[in-house]
Recover the amino acids of this structure.
């Protein structure tokens, strides 16, 4: 069978390889960059808010115990920042934005889980157990929500 212009001579089927479903190195780098950009955004925003709230006296000085209402505030803004970071990951994704945003959610889940384990028997400055458990539980849903908001914005801008 002779190949002619990428087609087998007798059957007419394509003999060109199908690269449509494979990621190229450039897309892999862009994918990693998209998730890292979201992670950096979440980290910078969260730590920035922490420093600001400690500096303004809303939170006690570092190392002192915080109350449940202060941890509730931290949970609220961390949730918003996690959604925003996932939105950024989805926006920067070269393909499959939902998967990139949820990947960031999985990274957040793992980071929160490690933090929960490391601080489980810590002192009162780590707060009660509900706070780290909540961070573990909301990480992936926040990733999904960030991707959904990105989808909605893309549809609106078409």
């Amino acid at each position: 069978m002779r190949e002619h212009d990428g087609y087998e001579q007798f059957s007419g089927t394509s003999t060109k390889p199908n690269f449509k479903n494979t990621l190229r190195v450039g897309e892999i780098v862009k994918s990693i960059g998209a998730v890292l950009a979201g992670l950096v955004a979440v980290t910078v925003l969260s730590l920035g808010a922490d420093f600001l709230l400690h500096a303004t006296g809303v939170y006690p000085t570092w190392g002192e115990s915080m109350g449940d209402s202060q941890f509730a505030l931290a949970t609220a803004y961390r949730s918003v920042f996690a959604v925003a970071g996932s939105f950024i990951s989805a926006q920067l994704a070269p393909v499959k934005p939902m998967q990139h945003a949820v990947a960031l959610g999985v990274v957040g889940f793992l980071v929160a889980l490690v933090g929960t384990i490391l601080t489980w028997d810590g002192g009162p400055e780590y707060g009660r157990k509900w706070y780290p458990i909540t961070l573990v539980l909301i990480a992936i849903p926040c990733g999904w929500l960030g991707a959904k908001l990105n989808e909605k914005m893309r549809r609106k801008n078409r």
